[in-house]
Design goal:
By secondary structure, the protein is α/β, with parallel strands linked by helices. It has two domains: 247 residues, no CATH class; 126 residues, CBS-domain, CATH 3.10.580. Helix content is 57%, strand content 14%. It has 13 helices and eleven strands. The strands form three sheets. The protein has a four-stranded mixed sheet. A hairpin with a 2-residue loop joins strand 3 and strand 4. Helix 1 packs across helix 2, helix 3 packs antiparallel against helix 5 and helix 6 runs antiparallel to helix 7.
Length: 387
Amino acid sequence: MLGGGSIRLGRIFGIRIGVDVSWFLVLFLIIWQLSGWYQELFPGEDTKAFTLAVVSALLFFLTILLHELGHAVVAIRNGIPILGIDLWLFGGVAKLGRDTDSPGVEFRVAVAGPLVTAAILGASFAVGTALSSSDTVLHATRFEDVHMGGTVAVLSYLTLVNFFVLFFNLIPGFPLDGGRIARAIAWKITGDRYRATRFAAVLGRVAGWGMVGVGGLFLIRSDGFTGIWLIFIGIFLAQAARSAEAQAAFSDRIDHLRVQDVMDAEPVAIPEQLPLDRAEGEYFLRYGWAWFPVVDSGGRLVGVVSREAIESVPDAIRGGRPTASVMARDDGGSGLRAQLEDPLEALLTHEGLGRLGAVMAVDRDGVLRGIVTIDAVRRALQGALPA
């Protein structure tokens, strides 16, 4: 859904968190819309209204982030790497490093986000009720002018917005969470991931165009903002479902391929204790490559060293410095490696292919067994295309 050019905010549980440029537009629109409502609740207190609007908007996106973290944490626990979480125009997306490999894992990953949202919804309503009353919170969720404090108003907004997030995500249309749950069920029944994905994608297109129709009705009734927004989301959902179906068909054709099937099984690697001057002469000058993997005495991948890193060290001291001193260390989560048994599909979004143009193939002990270049992946994909 996203091209990967998001602005990085930081990491949570080791997961990269970023925001797309479109997020700032939505943040502005939400603050602008909520400012008007809070000004009606607190007339003459414009600063308070604006502050509450900003707090509400940021808390809303925090709940979206928690929703996506629910998906991400469950995915990681089931052995699926997470490339990152991005907040954007339509909320958020947790980008899985590869597809799920069983209907049970698919179901657990899909349902985790809605469960987090349901918990936030329940907590917001419960705390708001404890501070005022259930009637006050329910009236506020309809944006009715009732007497309440700022905290209850914010909690009422969070109750409302998380209700809609939960409802929207449970629509049984791929790639929404409800669609992924439907895919898991169909996958369990049929035993065929591709057929299940195609079924869920059809539901997604139906849901998307249905949303476009509802948006048209809102336009007829002069609710232009809601109508345009629903049409926009509906078209996106229908197109995303169609793309998911095409991706599933392609994935089905390369499902049998693994990293070990496309790697160069004779990798050239530099020992980590080799002096820099020898590394330069025996590897960089000999082969002319821009970088090499670095291994320890047992052949385990420990990092990658570039020509620039070696050249940054003065000639006079290169003989006394080991290669390990200037390499980019691999900690297992640096995006440099892939397991031999990983499916080829997992490499399509692999960080190493985009950054280095290659991925190091290692066995379960971390021993370097091969290198997969972007050209090798391209050739494998071209061979999978229909004639």
